[in-house]
Amino acid sequence: MTDRIGVGLIGYGLGGRAFHAPYLTTTPGLALRAIVSRDAAKVHADWPRALVLPDVAALLADESTALVVVSSPDHLHAAHAEAALAAGKHVLVDKPFATSLGEARALIAASEHAGRLLTVFHNRRWDADFLTLRGLIADGALGEVVNYESRFDRWRPEPAPTWKEARAGGSWLDLGPHLVDQALLLFGRPSAITADMATLRRDAPAPDYFQATLRYPDKRVTLHSSKLAADHGLRFTVHGTRGSWVKHGLDPQEAATVAGQRPGGADWGHDPRDGLLTPGEPGAATTRVPNRRGDYRLFWSALTAAIRGEGPNPVPPHEALGVMEVLDAGLRSAAERREIAL
């Protein structure tokens, strides 16, 4: 395809290196034009021929760039996205969408004013285990879900000296966006949230633990994360009126790109750790449920089509704003130690 969409990437931390550049260089219809980074050597170690620019202004001045991917530190998301929209670019913002509801709403208004596409990188919609769970629910294997627990635990007992460890909101604004987005996709907007957040590691600069309960009229949803979990394999526990599904292990795509693999091949996104389905009928046997294949490439191909006017935005701004509203309410709940209505 000769009319590929030129893309500029802002930032080359974990997000830029593992979640964006490998897909920008392998998705048909996209062409990575330049990367903004203060560490050109780090970029060239992975992409020897990449054009590395020293600042965002230089990237936005490039007329060959139609899409800007914002993967800078959280507190810069809104400023970089707004500048890109003002320059006439389509924009993909890494999660979290912004650091406040006000910033998120302002970005949506800016995209509407500019007439450009705005989307947010909620890639975990295309995790193998989450796609499998969506299929089980759609097929009725669990009946009506009444209790849903989703966890992102880690064993990182020593805080790392990085901005991510010190981000405002801690783990809630790091891992929380993934868990909240998945819950909203499955069940819609909750009635209320009760959240507890804490700093459990010695000398950690920000909260490294959270547990949030989303209240629905007919179910309870628990979102949990701790960085002091030596046994951190449990990912999902879902109970319904017809049975239960329990899943251990994480989708393998992040680990693969961190290890330097490029997206592709018949086994890409294959999660070998099957979930266990236990029917509610007396005497029914627990069975293994093979995972559907996870594939973040589906986000990128959908984004390419949306920019061309050939399909919908894979993560519409109003859905990302809904995630921000729950995150904001969770912060207020933890600070005020009470349930916050949504």
Short description, anyone?
With 342 residues, the protein is an alpha/beta fold.
Give the SSE map.
Elements: E1 5-10, H1 14-24, E2 30-36, H2 40-46, E3 52-53, H3 56-60, E4 67-70, H4 77-86, E5 90-94, H5 101-114, E6 118-121, H6 128-139, E7 145-151, H7 171-174, H8 176-187, E8 192-198, E9 209-216, E10 219-226, E11 234-240, E12 243-248, H9 253-258, E13 275-279, E14 287-289, H10 297-307, H11 317-336, E15 340-341
Parallel strand pairs: 1-2, 1-4, 2-3, 4-5, 5-6, 7-10
Antiparallel strand pairs: 7-11, 8-9, 8-15, 9-10, 11-12, 12-13, 13-14
The CATH superfamily of the largest domain turns out to be Dihydrodipicolinate Reductase, domain 2
For the residues shown, what is the average pLDDT? 96
Put simply, the count of helices is: 11
Give the radius of gyration.
20 Å
Q: What number of domains?
A: 2
CATH-scheme architecture of the largest domain: 2-Layer Sandwich
Top CATH class of the largest domain: Alpha Beta
> Can you summarize the main beta sheet?
9 strands, mixed
Strand content: 15-25%
Structural class: alpha/beta
Low-confidence stretches: none
How many strands? 15
CATH structural fold name of the largest domain: Dihydrodipicolinate Reductase, domain 2
Q: Strand order, biggest sheet?
A: 14-13-12-11-7-10-9-8-15
Termini separation (Å)? 46 Å
Shape: globular
Provide the succession of SSEs: EHEHEHEHEHEHEHHEEEEEHEEHHE
Question: Portion of residues in helices?
Answer: 25-40%
Keywords: Oxidoreductase
Protein name: Oxidoreductase
Domain Gfo/Idh/MocA-like oxidoreductase N-terminal: 5-122
Region (Disordered): 258-284
